[in-house]
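Late entry, written up from scratch paper. The run itself happened at the end of the previous shift, but nothing got recorded in the book at the time, so transcribing now.
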Amino acid sequence: MFDRFLEEEGRGFRRFKRRLLRRGRRRLEETATLVHVSVLLFVPLLIGLLTYLSTRWEHLSFFLFPPLAAGTYALFAHPESKRSSPIRFVTGLTAGAVCAWVAVGVAVWIVYPDLPPTSIEVDAPGAAFAIFLTGVVTWAFDIEEAAAFSTALLGLLVDPTRQFSFVVSVFLGSSLVAVAFTVWRNLFYERRAQYLYESTEGDDHVLVPVRDERESAEATAILGGRLAAAHEAGKVVLLDVVEEDRTANAKRALRRAKADRLDPDSASGIEPDLGIEGASGASVAGAGSGGGGGRGGGREGETKTETETETKSERNEEEKSAIVATVTELERLATRIESELEVPCQVIVATSGSSPAETVRQTATEANCDLIAVPYEAENGDLTPFVTRLLRSNVDVLVHRSHAGRTDWRRIVVPVRRAGDTAHNMIDFGLRLAGSTGRVSVAHCADSERRRRVADTMLANLVETFDGTLETRVANSSIERFLRRVAPANDLLIVGASRDRSAASRLVSPPTFERTDELDADVAIVDRR
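Output as recorded:
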């Protein structure tokens, strides 16, 4: 019993650990959090390194550290700002040190020529002149840097005989910081999508379950094909899930026979073994001996057996015709995807077993597919159990609600609630589908002016990691009103499944796709694992 208690406690701790790691990763996916973490890591390390160097090299003055620390923080805290330029940072701080040198020289040679240089103290006119000169120089050369003014003031405290070494130490120290900042920004910050988001290279092997609604399934298959075609290693797998093993085996046999007929070395005119029993396979029972009554009974038995055999034969013929039609339709769709989208397409027939959703998930794993694109299915206004179970699986899922069978999407709207891997994934899907000639609009609905400014920054941080035609918009309305307003003018709306939210949160505020039933555009519901 104690062992069972420890096992339960261990599982609970592991769940808590996974939840904590997920939350930490979601926070890091926000650009503001990433910037703050970088400030906490790199600013102390750089200042510590410079302090260590100052203890080894006496010419590296400690006076440069206060402005250097302030300037380093400004660089890492605002990496996209116009003033976060490494060249501006180095030249600005160096200019402040040079202006301090000039101010000290004026005091030594002009203002107090009779006093020894070491006895001259900083006075108000000298400080004002140093700040004035720094402002003129930085303005004239467009190198305005806040830390330059503090460098100019601190330079007045340096011994006049060591002004040159102070200027050199400011230049070298600021250059070291500038190099570290440039490496961080170019190799990590600007490539943060590659490290923090998993959607940049994935979701290129797409599995499309083909069920009852053939028109919507075909549109979904084309959508999946366009997503896969955006990557060189993309492929599409069309999956037909059937109820009985016998039907599945028949479909596989028919596909093999079609492949054989396409092979010029194979024999023609061979009928495939569909695994369906016909009349010739039925056994007819003959009656035994006896009088006329026995023979009459035998004739009735023969008549009854022949009728059952004919009925069974007709049923098998109908089943065979349905199988031929289904496989032919799948082959036609696969051929269309390969010819129009230039992406490999495979057809798989599998039996559903106890759970069709589990069969789809297992097939996706075996076929090495990292995305399941499934047509939207609803019963009484809710998602069918099949789609619901797929959304709870451990594979990325895209649920496509087709409008009028559209197969080309050039105008796409992606409403996002917050920055993160799911939002990044949705934008990536939008760019793949829109192509080079399309347009993707990334939107957020804000309910106040303060939230509007925050949303503008969030959207700007999201879209700057992509290459493509992107626009951002912040709407001052509810998400339902916004989608109904923009749907007629667009081809596709990509929304999140909100599976990363708690059950209580979804109860208070249902997911967007549950609040927007009738829209004049296609809807893609993205669930990211």
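Residues 361 and 393 are 7 Å apart (CA to CA).
(Scratch paper discarded after transcription.)
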